[in-house]
Structures are given as C-alpha cells and as structure tokens.
Specification:
This protein is α/β, with parallel strands linked by helices. It is about 45% helix and about 20% strand. It is built from 19 helices and 19 strands. The strands form 3 sheets. Strands 4-3-2-5-6-8-1-9-18-16-15-10-12-13-19 form a 15-stranded mixed beta sheet, with helices on both faces. Strands 7-14 form a two-stranded parallel ribbon. It has a two-stranded parallel sheet with strand order 11-17. Strand 15 and strand 16 form a beta hairpin. It is globular and about 80 Å long.
Length: about 475
C-alpha cells in the first residue's frame, strides 16, 4: 500500500509538470487542448506520446543556434549596407499598406526598398532562359538555393553552366534540400566540387533522424547573381515546369526577377542558410551587398522569409495583414489550400464585408488526401461569399496574391500549415500598381481555364463526400 501511494503521487507530479509544459510550450490552443486531454485521459501512454512526438528536441537545439547566428548577420547587414531602409514612406501603394511594411521592418528587420526593377516570369519557359542568361553573365558570384533540383535536361544544363562559371573564377554556391532533391548524387557533387562549385545539402536526411528532419525542409527557391539580380517564386528546377511536347501535364507557375536593393534581403537569407549548411557563420562582404545603381523604375519591394528558426511566422503574418488591409479585392492562387483558422477567418471576414475575394486552386491536386483536406474548407468560404475556381488546364503551382490592384505577393509559401509552421519559405512583396495589374490580368486569364464552384451544388453534395473531406482535414498538420 505504501508503494502504491508513492507511485500515485509521483505519477501525479509528473502529470502536472507535463501539463504545465504543454500549456507553456504549445502555441496552438487546439493542439494544447488535444495534448492535455490525451495526457489526462490515457494514463502513461498519453504522457509518453507527448514527450516523444510533441516536443521536437532537435529543432529547439539546432535552430536556436541558427537563429542566433542569423541575428548576428543581420546586425552586420544593417551596419554596412547604406541602402538598408527602415522607413515606410512611399507612394499610394505603400501608404495603403504601411502597416504591412512596418510589420516586416519591426518583426524581421526586412527593409522596404525602392528603385527596383521587377519582371514577372510565367512558367519555366519564361524563367529558365532569363536565369541562364544571368548566370552566363555573372562576374563575381552565383548563389542558388532550391527545394527541388532534378538532374533532367534543364537541371543538367544549368549544372554544366555552373561548372563552367566556377572554372572561370566565379564563386558558385549551391544549396539543395536533401529531401526534395534526391537525384543530386554523390558523383555529381564530387564533379562540381572538383570544378570549384561549393555545394551542400540542407539538413541532410539520415534514417535515424528521419522523423525530425523530414518535417523541417528548405522550400525556398532563391538565385542571386553578383548581388544585383535575384530570382524567387514557385518554380523549382525540373523539366516539368517547361510546357512543351515532352511534358504531358501543363504546369502553371509564377516566378519573379528583381534587380536592385530588393535583392539584399534574399542575399541575407541565402547567406544565413549557407552558414547553417557549412556550420560557419557568414560575414557581410561588400561584394555580396554592393551599393546598387538606382533603376529607372521606382518600384518598392520588400521580402519576407520565415521558418523553424523564426521567432514569429512572418510569412503567415504578412499574408494576414495584406488581407486585412484590403479594401476592395483579394485574389489568391495556391496549389495547396489547407490554412488554419486565422486565414479562413480573414477570408470570410473580407468576403462578408463586401470585398471581392477569389481563390484559384488546382482542379485535382497531386495528392488525393491533400485535395480532400482542401475541399473541407470550401463550405465555409462559399457561404461567406468567396468565389472558388478549380483550375482545369493542368496543375496550377503558383503561389501569388494581389490585393486592390496595388499590392502583389509572389513566393514559395503555400496556403498550408507546413509552409507557415514547418518549412523555410520566402515571399516577395511588390508595392506597385502597374505590376499588380499585370499579375491581376494573369489571374483572370487563369480562371478562364478554371471551373467556378457552384455554391448550391457544393453545399448539397452527398454526405459521404463531405465526411471524407472532413476526415482528411483531421490530418492537415501532417500534410
């Protein structure tokens, strides 16, 4: 009896301590409640489950170090780069979204830059010729960072060009995600290194670490040439992004080229990731952050990046703020739509307030369970007045947003939990009416190839369809 009481008391103390950790360490109220109920209602097993899967010890240890080194790099950047602007003064496009610009300046120290030249690039057939030309003309350095890099025709061509430029004396640094780019083999790495290319995987996946490392992937697509020109957006390196007779599925995607000081923050993100891959803190060099010649165009650009090393989900915050600041129209294109309650509420509030809110998603996703989980969100949006379009021409992979024909957002982040909480992502924000009108025109051209969901028919679908979608949504955090 004595030992029984001791066991009960010890277990009760452990239970209280675990519950307190759940309350203080779990940010999501839904997850907090779920973990608490599981720990309390399922003796021993609930506590073991939380301690095993609810706490990511690897993330806490590894990314806290990266965050510290990134902060040090950012301080160097602010000190040595003269065009690092922290003011939100600008034309109407900026003034109407000043709260967004201020949020990013204060939250992640991302400057609002002007005198940029931006170019919209649709699909691989527009991006890759532009990218190859810039690589060919590189004089000092080429920095590349990709989630998916395939050694097919376009991938091999770019690798050969990188090897050629490295042999000419150009600094070439290449980060690839080890999970997203499994075709990068040791032989290719060895050949590139022998030619002078510095190449490293991001968070190399080993079997014994798979459960942790598979979650925190580098989903960014960044290229910086000579610190003057940058590319970012949804397009990875693969033949499937080029719509020709060889590829049967039409692939609709969007990318962005930036020339000017808007490149600075993308360079910072790359160097921060590079230091993490090499385990060497990078230093700010004037050749990587050279003073920019003012472009004839006076386009304002701001870059937002976030990931497991971020104190706040800055990409999510930027999207939410842009939606809340919209006065007339919100146009969103995303290949994966599994947002949290915050995005859902923002869109429903906007539509219920009389704004025109349109959402373009794939007719059929490349994952059946993702497709089903996405559909589970349509019911509430349709009831609020959001127009939802299902792309029919092929697969839409673009991640874009336009608000009020003034503000544009192009990047790597999907509208899902993985992009907002687990992956390293980056979005570029362009405050410019002319550019927004171009991206807006692209959106309306895309919905010509889409099927608009009929609210009445959708809400009256058979029960078993609705049930399947709702069950799939339960797995949203893992998709």
């Amino acid at each position: 009896m004595h030992w029984s009481w001791i066991t009960i008391i010890v277990y009760a103390v452990i239970m209280v301590l675990v519950c307190l950790r759940v309350i203080f360490e779990t940010h999501s109220s839904t997850k907090t409640l779920a973990y608490l109920l599981f720990c309390i209602l399922v003796p021993v097993a609930g506590i073991v489950f939380y301690l095993t899967f609810g706490i990511n010890y690897w993330k806490s240890k590894l990314y806290s170090k990266k965050a510290s080194e990134d902060e040090s790099l950012l301080k160097q950047l602010k000190k040595h780069v003269p065009q690092y602007n922290e003011k939100t003064v600008g034309p109407e496009e900026v003034a109407g979204n000043a709260e967004l610009a201020t949020l990013l300046i204060k939250d992640i120290k991302s400057p609002l830059t002007r005198y940029n030249k931006v170019k919209l690039l649709l699909n691989g057939e527009e991006k890759f010729p532009e990218l190859i030309k810039c690589i060919e003309n590189a004089k000092h350095h080429i920095h590349l960072e990709y989630y998916i890099y395939e050694q097919d025709e376009i991938g091999s061509a770019i690798i050969e060009l990188l090897i050629k430029k490295a042999r000419e004396g150009v600094e070439v640094r290449f980060i690839y995600d080890d999970f997203g780019s499994p075709t990068i083999k040791k032989k290719i790495e060895k050949r590139m290194r022998e030619a002078g290319v510095e190449i490293h995987p991001f968070s190399k996946v080993h079997f014994y670490l798979l459960a942790n490392r598979i979650n925190y992937r580098n989903h960014r697509k960044i290229v910086i040439i000579d610190g003057q020109t940058a590319f970012t957006g949804g397009i990875n390196v693969s033949d499937k992004y080029i719509n020709n007779k060889k590829e049967k599925l039409y692939w609709r995607d969007t990318h962005l080229r930036i020339d000017g000081p808007g490149v600075y923050y993308l360079q910072y993100l790359f160097l921060a990731d590079w230091g993490f891959c090499c385990d060497k803190p990078p230093k700010v060099d004037k050749q990587y952050f050279a003073e920019q010649e003012p472009q004839k165009e006076d386009t304002y650009v701001q870059v937002v990046g976030s990931g497991p090393d971020s104190a706040q989900p800055a990409v999510l915050f930027a999207i939410l703020q842009a939606i809340y600041l919209a006065k007339e129209e919100v146009l969103i294109t995303t290949p994966y739509f599994i947002p949290g309650d915050n995005i859902m509420d923002a869109l429903r509030i906007a539509a219920s307030s009389g704004l025109s809110v349109k959402l373009l998603v794939p007719g059929v996703s490349d994952s059946k369970i993702v497709n089903a989980a996405s559909k589970a969100n349509y019911h509430d949006l349709l009831k609020a007045g959001v127009e939802i379009y299902l792309y029919q021409k092929g697969f839409v992979h673009a991640k874009t947003m336009v608000t009020d024909g003034k503000l544009s957002m192009i990047g790597t982040a999907n509208m899902d939990y993985r992009s907002f909480e687990l992956n390293f992502e980056v979005n570029a924000i362009v405050y410019d009416v002319a550019f927004a009108e171009k991206l807006r025109a692209v959106f309306f051209e895309d919905i010509k190839h889409a099927k608009k969901i009929n609210e009445k028919l959708w809400l009256n679908r058979p029960f078993y369809y609705k049930l399947a979608d709702r069950l799939a949504r339960l797995f949203s955090p893992a998709l």
